[in-house]
Design a protein that fits this description.
Largest sheet of chain A: 5 strands, mixed
Mean pLDDT of chain A: 93
Mean pLDDT of chain B: 92
Radius of gyration of chain B: 12 Å
Largest interface: A-B, 27 and 21 residues
Strand order of the largest sheet of chain B: 1-2
CATH class of chain B: Mainly Alpha
Order of helices and strands of chain A: HHHEEEEHEEHEHHEHEEHHEEHEEEHHHH
Helix content of chain B: 40-55%
CATH topology of chain B: Arc Repressor Mutant, subunit A
Number of helices of chain B: 3
CATH class of the largest domain in chain A: Alpha Beta
Number of helices of chain A: 15
CATH topology of the largest domain in chain A: Sulfite Reductase Hemoprotein, domain 1
Number of domains of chain A: 3
Number of strands of chain B: 2
CATH architecture of the largest domain in chain A: 2-Layer Sandwich
Shape of chain B: globular
Oligomer: heterodimer
Low-confidence stretches of chain A: none
Largest sheet of chain B: 2 strands, antiparallel
């Protein structure tokens, strides 16, 4: 291992312990001045409890408004190797499936032009290259595109959509998340590369309500697989679980949030009309229970992590949407374009769509995008007695 | 709709960005709204503005910058 420029006792602490260490990995690349200075500056930040990175600016590739995030050191004189230390977001393949050859290609490109430090993957899902100069931006982009890769999203645009492994590896997938993610990415290339929104807009595709990509907490548009009909039950296999020691009543039936199931020792009875698709019973007995056969997705809108304002979870907009790849997801695209049209015109700068809905009110928002309110949009029955019905409702009642 | 070409619109956008350079950050939607005000709703719509903005960026006359949000601005040189 190459010696770093200065002693780094504070970040060296992060090399201790039986887990992977980013410090250890960075030091392997410390033969490059850019990486060596990144390590030294990090130590300095740990000493002073302050970041020395400046963020933003004018960097990017010709024609794109996203994909490269400007990063500069405010200690450039002391650490010239990281005077420019830009981040590159590369659009990942659906569900992060790579061939080893693809990974070698990416690493070769990054070793040739940048620091060699990667983050696999960023929280939105992109492949992240950390630490490149302004001069290297266009050559990196040229090499990436020549090998079939493209930059991902950043800034006030649609961010790189991501999805769970879906039917590629999971029997619970209620639709083809990989296909949907790829289709939406290709269909909205303009929105991915050219900022036109008040702020970022994220898609995440989860194949079932387990929501392995945490879409309900981390995407403006969560597409979560679900089913309409009954849970598929194999009572013989349920019995096997009981024989193996599973307490059906205590561990499954009593933990059902709506108490919609019961077990009499022979038959697992499920009141499917009251099932809220929490997946607990299916997770507990994967060999005995499966999601129903009439599958699709629920579309939820409005979640975000706490950056500008507080965190929000997504709310149901479309309780059930068929996700047939043959349809090219036209309903989802139509809904998305209606939302973008309204939010794009009236959203404040750095206002996420969930915050916009809170500001204008859900009923106004629904009316403007042309979506009928449905009971599934209500989280729980209203407890406020001061409800004012429109006159026509009273007239109809009469 | 009266004929306004993409090039005319791109030129008007460029003039706007140039006139506000260093004074005000313009979001793409700000530029679009200004163009609709300038030429009128009957002559210009959002789709046409998107095409004109694309022309402006692709030719390098303007670029995007990030400063908390994304804005349209002039290149450094």
């Amino acid at each position: 291992m190459t010696e770093t420029k200065r002693k780094t006792p504070l970040i060296d602490e992060l090399e201790k312990g039986p887990w992977p260490s980013f410090v250890k990995e960075m030091k392997k690349e410390a033969h490059k001045p850019i990486t060596r200075d990144a390590i030294s500056q990090l130590e300095r930040s740990y000493e002073e409890h302050i970041s020395h990175w400046k963020h933003g600016g004018l960097v990017g590739v010709m024609g794109y408004g996203g994909g490269v995030i400007g990063r500069y050191s405010d200690l450039a004189a002391e650490f010239p190797g990281v005077a420019e230390f830009h981040t590159f977001r590369v659009n990942q393949p659906s569900a992060w499936f790579y061939t080893s050859d693809a990974l070698r290609t990416l690493c070769d490109i990054w070793d040739k032009h940048g620091s060699g430090i990667t983050n696999m993957h960023g929280s939105t899902g992109d492949i992240v290259f950390l630490g490149g100069t302004t001069e290297a931006i266009e050559p990196i982009f040229a090499d990436l595109t020549a090998n079939g890769w493209d930059l991902g999203g950043s800034g006030s645009n649609m961010r790189t959509p991501s999805c769970c492994v879906g039917p590629a590896r999971c029997e619970w997938a209620c639709y083809d998340t990989l296909n949907a993610c790829y289709n939406i990415t290709q269909s909205f290339q303009d929105e991915l590369h050219r900022p036109f929104f008040p702020y970022k807009y994220k898609f995440k595709f989860a194949g079932c309500p387990n929501d392995c990509v945490a879409s309900i907490a981390r995407s403006d548009c969560s597409v979560i697989g679900t089913w309409k009909d009954d849970i598929q039950v194999n009572n013989a296999k349920v019995k096997d679980y009981e024989k193996q020691g599973l307490d059906l009543n205590a561990d499954v039936c009593d933990r059902c949030p709506t108490r919609c199931m019961s077990w009499d020792g022979k038959t697992l009875a499920i009141d499917n009309s009251n099932c809220v698709k929490c997946m607990h019973c299916i997770n507990m007995m994967p060999k005995a229970l499966k999601p129903g056969k009439e599958r699709g997705a629920t579309i939820l809108i409005g979640s975000k992590a706490p950056i500008v304002g507080g965190a929000l979870l997504s709310s149901v907009f479309v309780p059930f949407l068929e996700m047939d790849p043959e349809s090219e997801y036209s309903d989802l695209k139509e809904l998305t374009e209606a939302i973008w049209e309204l939010w794009g015109e009236h959203g404040k700068s750095r206002e996420r769509v969930g915050e916009f809905i809170q500001r204008v009110g859900l009923s106004n928002f629904l009316e403007e995008i042309g979506l009928e309110p449905v009971p599934e949009m209500v989280m729980h029955p209203r407890t406020n007695p001061y409800i004012f019905f429109d006159d026509e409702i009273f007239e109809k009642a009469e | 709709m009266a004929e306004v070409t993409i090039q005319q619109l791109a030129d008007a956008m460029y003039d706007l960005v140039k006139s506000t350079h260093g004074k005000k950050n313009l979001k793409p939607m700000d530029v679009t709204k200004a163009m609709i005000d300038q030429f009128g709703e009957d002559s210009v719509d959002k789709a046409l503005c998107k095409k004109a903005l694309r022309e402006l960026i692709d030719t390098g006359r303007c670029i995007y910058k990030y400063a908390g949000g994304s804005f349209v601005t002039l290149p450094e040189n």
